[in-house]
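Question (not urgent): is this output format expected?
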Amino acid sequence: MTSDQIFQLFAYLLPSIVTGAIAFYFFRMHTNNEEGRRRFLLHKDSQKDTLPVRLQAYERMALFLERIAIPSLVVRVAPKSQDKDAYENLLIKSIETEFDHNLSQQIYMTDECWNIIKAAKNATVQMIRKAAMSQSETADKLREDILNDTMEKASPSATALSFVKREIGELW
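Got this back:
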């Protein structure tokens, strides 16, 4: 084989190699684009079904946080007797019952949001317990002490509620 023949063979092969490489590149781009489009359509369809459920879960947790806010809780849950320990237990039981009722909502939320809601619940319970350790002797006095203690500090449920609102804003 002479150098002319090798050059001629190379001249015939070069255009077919370039054409093959370009065709491969375009087919690969096309299949990647189609895969992305299918993924987008699946995500869009699933989002259409799950978004209302997720929003409802956030709505329920916002309601929970509003209900366990100390001023709201103390007004809603009145003491049944003058025993301060019974009232303390009643308040905590009310929070726990409300929380248990909404426990399933965690599957629609991020772990961070759920942990903040749990922390707000636990902080509220701790605030009630701390106020119950005061020198108050009646349930009405305990109620007053709880309200006075929380007037000076930011409410844990308000902090958690602002986080929930921020997270809902990220869904859009």
